[in-house]
What we know:
Elements: H1 2-30, E1 41-42, E2 46-47, E3 53-62, E4 69-78, E5 92-97, E6 99-102, E7 109-112, E8 114-119, E9 122-128, E10 139-141, E11 151-157
Parallel strand pairs: 9-11
Antiparallel strand pairs: 1-3, 2-3, 3-4, 4-5, 5-10, 6-7, 8-9
Amino acid sequence: MKKVLGWLVWVLAGVGLTTVIVLSVYAWLRSPAAGAPHPDFVDKPIVSPDGAFKAVRLNYNGGGAIAPYCYDRLAVLKGDAPISDAGADAAMVFGSDCASFWLDKGPAIERSPKIEWTAANELRVTFSINRTANKAGSFRLRKQDATGSIRISFIAHD
């Protein structure tokens, strides 16, 4: 009986060690070189009327069935900046859990946030608060971009 228990302990230890190694390699391969997470989806940039700036919506999601997550960010960049700069914290002007607008006509939904340039130096962000019906939500808002050139206004909507 002692031999069986000793053997079982070694087998379970081997399975545990193998699992840790496999998950570590997977996490290492998924991690970007710069240390910041890669977005899972990047929308086509919305360019300001004068072309000097662009707004980029990024989506981060994953976690599977055990710990799912979904997070949207909005970044404002200079018009000639690469899209890869949108993931930088300095570029972020809005961040929240993923949400959608419920449309009054039919079962269709629209993704939040809505982004609209109202002038060459003004951006309007309309975001959904539907997820806050059952529990409080958190939002990250900046009233101007990193350069101080773009004024950002926010509208919370169902």
